[in-house]
Amino acid sequence: MNIKDKINKYIISRFPDTSKNKSIDKINLTDLLDSLAIHDFIFYLEKEFKIKISSSDITPDNFKSINSLEEFLKNKIK
User: Fold this and answer.
1) Using one digit for the tens of pLDDT, what is the confidence trace for 23-55?
2) If you placed Cys at 5, which of 1, 33, 47, 58 could pair as Cys (CB 3.0 to 4.6 Å)?
3) From residue 67, how far is each of 5, 23, 29, 43, 73 by CA, in Å?
4) In whole angstroms, what separates CA 77 from the centre of its chain?
5) Residues of the chain with pLDDT > 90: what percent?
6) Straight-line distance from the first to the last Cα atom of the chain, in angstroms, rounded to the nearest whole number
7) What is the Cα–Cα distance from 52 to 34, expressed in whole angstroms?
8) CA distance 18 to 51
9) Strand, helix or coil at 53?
């Protein structure tokens, strides 16, 4: 399973209504995730991808979409 698939699976498991959206890649994650959900999501990402995400990494540009998050994670994993 690639990065995007893992993110999609997590989002759909936490927010089942998103599975009805054919363009899940275009969902704005900053609109979807509230402050508590973002902490859970960060914890999941750190554990799943064995990385550390600092508070300075949590920006609208990195988390605005699944595509932007995928790019951020690819760079972080390198």
Assistant:
1) 666 777 877 888 888 999 999 999 999 999 999
2) 1
3) 11, 11, 10, 19, 10
4) 14
5) 55
6) 18
7) 20
8) 26
9) coil
